[in-house]
Specification:
Elements lengths: L17 E3 L2 E3 L11 E7 L4 H17 L6 E9 L10 H9 L5 E5 L4 H6 L6 E5 L5 E5 L4 H13 L11 E5 L4 E5 L5 E9 L2 E8 L9 H16 L2 E4 L2 H9 L9
C-alpha cells in the first residue's frame, strides 16, 4: 500500500510539548534545521515493532552520526489508541531504555496531526528529510545500511529523491460515489448511501487487472481522508470496508 508523502515538501512540525533526557526544551522545528538532513521517528511506547525494529535502528543511526552536525534527529509519540499506556511520561522511559537523547514531542488524538500531515500508516514510522526540505523516505521501516546510504547521499547531494506520485480523489455526490484515480493508472470506486452525516459504505472496487497490488487499501485511505475532512461518519456495510476499519484503529473515530 502507498502511504507517506515521498517527494513532497516536508510539513512543519507544529508541536509545542518537547522533552529531552535533561528536561523540557524549545520546540523542534524543521525550519530551524534547514539545510540539514532531518531524521524523524514516530512511535508509540506500547508498539511491539517500535521496540523490535524502530528504536534499535534509531539508536544505531544516532550512534553512527554522533558528532555529525549535518544530520539531526527528533521523535514524536503519535498516539491514536492506548492513551493510558502511551502517556507523555513514557517518552523519558524510551530515552532511558535505549540510552539515547533527542527531542521527543507528544502528539495525540483521534488521528494526530503528525499522522495526517505525513500520511503515515501508524507506528513505527521513519521520515528522512533532505537538506532542501523534501521527503526522501517515508515508511514503516528503514533498513540500517540503506538508511545510512540514503542519509550519506543526501548530505553529499548525490541521492536522488523520487518525484511525488499522487492519487486523485473525485467525489460524485449525485451518484454517491468516490472515485480514486491511481497515480500509476486505473480508477477505484467506493459507493455509499448517505443518511444525514453518516455514509454507509456499500461497495468498493479496484480494476480487476490491478488487484493484489494494495490498491484497495489506497482507495480506503484516500476516501477516508476526504470523509474525515468533510466532518462525516461512516458505517461499513460491505465486507472489505468493515474488515479494513476493524484492522486499522487509527480510523476508529470515523465510525458512526
Amino acid at each position: 500500500m502507498q502511504f507517506g508523502i515521498l517527494g513532497h515538501e516536508a510539513p512543519e512540525l507544529h508541536l509545542k510539548d518537547w522533552v529531552t533526557a535533561s528536561g523540557v526544551v524549545a520546540p523542534f522545528t524543521l525550519a530551524n534545521r534547514d539545510g540539514k538532513v532531518r531524521v524523524l521517528f514516530f512511535f508509540q511506547a506500547w508498539c511491539p515493532s517500535c521496540h523490535s525494529h524502530g528504536f534499535p535502528v534509531l539508536k544505531h543511526l544516532m550512534d553512527h552520526y554522533k558528532g555529525n552536525s549535518e544530520v539531526v534527529f527528533a521523535a514524536v509519540q503519535t498516539v491514536f489508541e492506548g492513551f493510558g499506556a502511551n502517556g507523555p511520561e513514557r517518552r523519558l522511559d524510551m530515552l532511558e531504555d535505549y540510552g539515547i537523547d533527542l527531542p521527543i514531542a507528544q502528539d495525540e488524538g483521534q488521528r494526530p496531526d503528525t499522522i495526517k500531515a505525513y500520511r503515515t500508516g501508524g507506528t513505527p514510522w521513519f521520515v528522512v528529510i533532505s537538506p532542501d526540505g523534501r521527503v526522501a523516505h517515508n515508511d514503516y521501516r528503514l533498513g540500517l545500511r540503506s538508511g545510512i546510504a540514503l542519509i550519506d547521499g543526501l548530505v553529499t547531494g548525490s541521492a536522488t529523491i523520487p518525484s511525488p506520485q499522487d492519487d486523485r480523489v473525485l467525489h460524485d455526490e449525485a451518484r454517491q460515489t468516490y472515485l480514486v484515480e491511481f497515480a500509476e493508472g486505473g480508477t477505484g470506486r467506493l459507493e455509499y448511501h448517505r443518511n444525514g452525516h453518516i455514509l454507509s459504505l456499500m461497495h468498493s472496487e479496484v480494476p480487476a487487472n490491478m488487484r493484489g497490488k494494495g490498491l484497495g487499501g489506497r482507495l480506503m485511505e484516500r476516501v477516508l481522508e476526504e470523509i474525515e475532512a468533510s466532518g462525516r461518519k461512516v458505517r461499513p456495510v460491505c465486507s472489505y470496508t468493515a474488515a479494513y476499519l476493524n484492522r486499522y484503529k487509527r480510523w476508529a473515530h470515523l465510525r458512526a
